[in-house]
Amino acid sequence: MILSNDVATPHSYGVIIQSGILDLNGHTLTIRSLALLSEGYIASNKWSSMMFSYCYPPVPIRFLPSEDTIGTLSVIPQNCTLIIGSNLYIHDTLQSNSHIIIDTGNDLRLLEGAAIISSGHIITRPTATLSQYLNKGDSIFFPVSTGYNYSPVMIKSRNNTEYDYFSVCLIEGVYEDGFSGKPVGLYQPCVNLTWILNCSPRAAIDYDLDLTWNIGPEFNSFDRSSSYISHYLNSKWDKHALAPPFSPYPLMYTLSRKNITTTGPFAIFDKNTKVSIKHLNKNNTVIPFPNPATDQLNIILDESATATIYNAAGQAVLNAEIGKNNQTVNISHLAPGMYFLQLKGDVNSVIRFVKE
User: Fold this and answer.
1) Residue 69 near residue 47, CB atoms below 8 Å
2) Domain region containing 91
3) I want to staple 208 with a disulfide (CB 3.0 to 4.6 A). Which of 38, 94, 156, 270 is the partner?
4) Is residue 277 part of a domain?
5) What's the pLDDT tens digit per position in 28-72?
6) How does pLDDT run across 303-321, given as a tens digit for each residue?
7) Taking a C-beta distance cutoff of 8 angstroms, is the pair 220, 184 a contact?
8) Is the preceding omega at residue 245 within 30 degrees of 0, hence cis?
9) How many CB atoms within 10 Å of residue 98?
10) Which residues of the chain are under the pLDDT cut of 50?
C-alpha cells in the first residue's frame, strides 16, 4: 500500500499491517487508534512523518532496511509506548512525551542536524543503541532508561574533536569483566547499571561524560558522597578521583568525568568497591556440594576463609568461618531460592547455588 496524501486514522480505527509494506511515500501518517504490525514493514524517507496519539498493544514497528529514514517521529500521549523493531534514522525530529523502546540489536539514530524533543524516556534493550551526531565542541543529551531506571547521559566533545556518531546503551547490572563475569551488585557497593558507549571519531577521542541516576539502583550501602565513574579498560574496572555528585533534580544524582579518550562500559562505584582483584586460577576453584542443597552446604578448602551468603537481591543472609575443621554451613533456615556464596581469604571466589 502506498500513501498518496497525508492520512489521519479515525479515533475508532487503527492501522493493522499483518504482512507486506506500507509505503509512506513522503507523507504524514497520524495514528489515533490501534497500531499493530505483525510481519509487515513500513517504507519511509526523509520527507515522511509518523505521529502516534495511540499505540496499544505496544508491539514492534519495523522499517524496510533500504527505506528506514523518517523526517519526524512523534509519540504524543504520556501513556503510549512505541517499540522500534528495526534500525531507524531520524532526519529532523524525534518527539516523545512517553516511552520509546529500541528493541534488542537495533539502532535508533538521529542524523546530523536532527533533534530530540522529549519529556519521556528512550529504553535501550540489550545491544540496542541510541545514536546521535556530535559536532566539535558540542554537547549531546541521551534520555536513556532500562525501563526500570531512568539514567540519562551527557557527552561533550573536547579540543574540537569531531565525531560522526556517539551511541549509548544502558543495561541493568554491572559485571566484573565488563560485559560478563560475576555480577558486582551482588556483593559490592555500586550503582547497579552499566552505560555502554561507542563512537566513530574522525580524530583522536577526547570527551567529557556526565552520568545520572536515581536512588533505586544503589546497591550494598553505596556511599554516593565518595563515588566515581569507573571505566572498564585493559580488562579491568579502573579507579578515578572520588567526588560527591550534584543533584540536577530531586532524588537524581550526576557524576562527571573529564578527558576520556576511549569508549566502552562505564559504571559508578564508591570508595569501598573492589572489583579489580583477580580470582585464583582454575586449580583453586571451589565447588560447594550438594547443589541444589537442602539443609547443609559442604565446602572443601585447604585453608581458612570467611563465607558470606547473599540472596538474589544482594542481601547478606549468613556469615560463617570455613577451614579444615569446619567445612559445613547450615542453610536449613534459608528460604528456597538462588543464592551466592562468597569466599574471602586464601581463596577468593563467588559461587552460585540453589537452596531447595
Assistant:
1) no
2) 7-270
3) 156
4) no
5) 988 876 665 567 899 999 999 999 887 666 768 899 998 999 999
6) 778 888 888 777 889 988 8
7) no
8) no
9) 19
10) 277-284
Domain boundary among 249, 270, 291: 270
Predicted TM-score of the model (pTM): 0.76
Sign of the alpha-carbon dihedral angle for 240, 246, 247, 251: positive
- Would you say residue 220 lies in a domain? yes
Whole-angstrom distance, CA of residue 208 vs CA of residue 157: 7
Give the DSSP per-residue string, 28-65: EEEE-S-EEESS-EEEE-TT-EEEES---S--EE-EEE
What is the C-alpha to C-alpha distance for residues 139 and 313, in angstroms, rounded to an integer?
A: 37
* Triad 230, 144, 211: Cα angle to 5°: 30
Amino acid at 274: K
Alpha carbons 253 and 228: distance in angstroms, whole number: 12
177 and 310 in a single domain? The answer is: no
Same-domain status, 178 and 74: yes
Contact (CB, 8 A) for 151 and 211? yes
Residue 308 pairs in a beta bridge with 319, 342
Separation between Cα atoms, residue 103 and residue 93, nearest integer Å: 20
Structural contact between residues 266 and 197, judged by C-beta atoms closer than 8 angstroms: yes
